[in-house]
Amino acid sequence: MKILDLRSDTVTHPTAAMRTAMAEAIVGDDVYGDDPTVIALETAAAERLGKEAALFVPTGTFGNQLAILSYCQPGDEVIVGDDSHIVWHEVGGAALISGVQLRTIDSDLGTMNAEKIRKKIRHGVDIHEPKTALICVENAHSNGRVIALETMQQIWQVAQAEGVPVHLDGARVFNAASALQVDVKAITQYCDSVMCCLSKGLAAPVGSILAGSHALIAKARKKRKLLGGGMRQVGVLAAPGLLALNEMTARLADDHRHAKLLAAQLAKIDGIVIDLDSVQINMVWFNFSREIDVDKLMQSLANANIKANPPEHGAMRLVTHWQIEEADLARVSQAIEAGIAR
C-alpha cells in the first residue's frame, strides 16, 4: 500500500525528472562562482521573483537568518509578527547569529497592521533606543493563510516612508501567488528581499533562494560563507531547483484543490471542527470538538499507511503535495474517522 505522508510539504521526494537532472548536472565550484547550474538557477530565480540578484542557500531558515544578518548590526531590532516562523521555529537564531532583538507585533492569523508597525519603528536617535533595521513579513503564512496584496502594500508604504527595508519570508510565496491567482512579482514588489523554499511543495530535495538587490546579495554571499553555507559542486542540487522553479510552481493549484477536497471530507466527520475558509493553500488545519484518544487516532493512521503529526493543543494539520493524489484523500479521511470514533 502506498505510504501517504501528510506531515508537511517538506517530505516531498524529488521527481524522476529531478533525479535525472541531478545525475546529468554540469557543475563547477560555487565558492569560486563558476558552477554554471547554480548560476542558471540564481539568474532564473532573480527574474521570477522580480529582484536584481539571487543566492542559493541550503534552507529556508538559513535564508531568513542570512537576510537578517545582512541587513542588521548587533543591537538593532527587527519588527516581526508574533506568530511568525522567524519567532516560533528558527531557534532564536536572530539573537545568536545577528545579535538583534525581535520586536513582535500582534498578528491576526498572520496579518500585521501597517499602522501598528509604524508606531513600533524606532530610528535609534534616543540613546536608550535600538534602531529598527528591518521589518519581516510572511506570505503565505505558516498557518496556511495568504496575506492580501493590500496588506503587503500598506506595510511596504510605511516601510518606505520610514526608510526601513522589508524582508519577505516567502517560504511558500509561490503557493500564495497561486492562491491569489497573480504572478509572484505582484507579491514581491512589496519587499526589498525575499526568501523562497524550493524544497517544500516544489519538491527539490534541498535548497532555498534569497533574492534582493545586487548590493544585498553581494553582502549575503560573503556572510553565507561565514555561516558555513559556501558549497562546492552544488549544481547537483541547483539542477532540481531549476525544475522546482520552472515546472513545479505551475502545479501548486492541484495541491490547493486537494487540500480543499480533503477539508470538505473531514468537515462531515462527527467530532471535527474545521473552518473551510481557512484552507487557502495546501494546508488543512482542524480541531476536535470533544476529547479524543490521540494514540488510537495515530494508530488508525499508521494502520492505513498514513504519516501525520499528532494534534498539538487540540489542533491538527495535514499538508498536501505532489505525491498526494485526489484518489488518496478518502483513505485519509476514513482513517481519521475511524481513529476518533466513540
UniProtKB/TrEMBL annotation:
InterPro entries: ArAA_b-elim_lyase/Thr_aldolase, Low_specificity_L-TA-like, PyrdxlP-dep_Trfase, PyrdxlP-dep_Trfase_major, PyrdxlP-dep_Trfase_small. GO terms for molecular function: L-allo-threonine aldolase activity. It comes from the Bacteria. It is an enzyme of class 4 (lyase). The keyword Lyase applies. The keyword DNA repair does not apply. GO terms for cellular component: cytosol. GO terms for biological process: glycine biosynthetic process; L-threonine catabolic process. SUPFAM superfamilies: PLP-dependent transferases. Residues 5-286 form the Aromatic amino acid beta-eliminating lyase/threonine aldolase domain. Its EC number is 4.1.2.48. CDD domains: TA_like. The modification N6-(pyridoxal phosphate)lysine is found at residue 200. Keywords: Lyase, Pyridoxal phosphate. Its cofactor is pyridoxal 5'-phosphate. Transmembrane segments: none annotated. It holds the Pfam family Beta_elim_lyase. PANTHER family: L-THREONINE ALDOLASE, L-THREONINE ALDOLASE-RELATED. Homotetramer. Belongs to the threonine aldolase family. This is Low-specificity L-threonine aldolase. It comes from Deefgea piscis. The gene is ltaE.
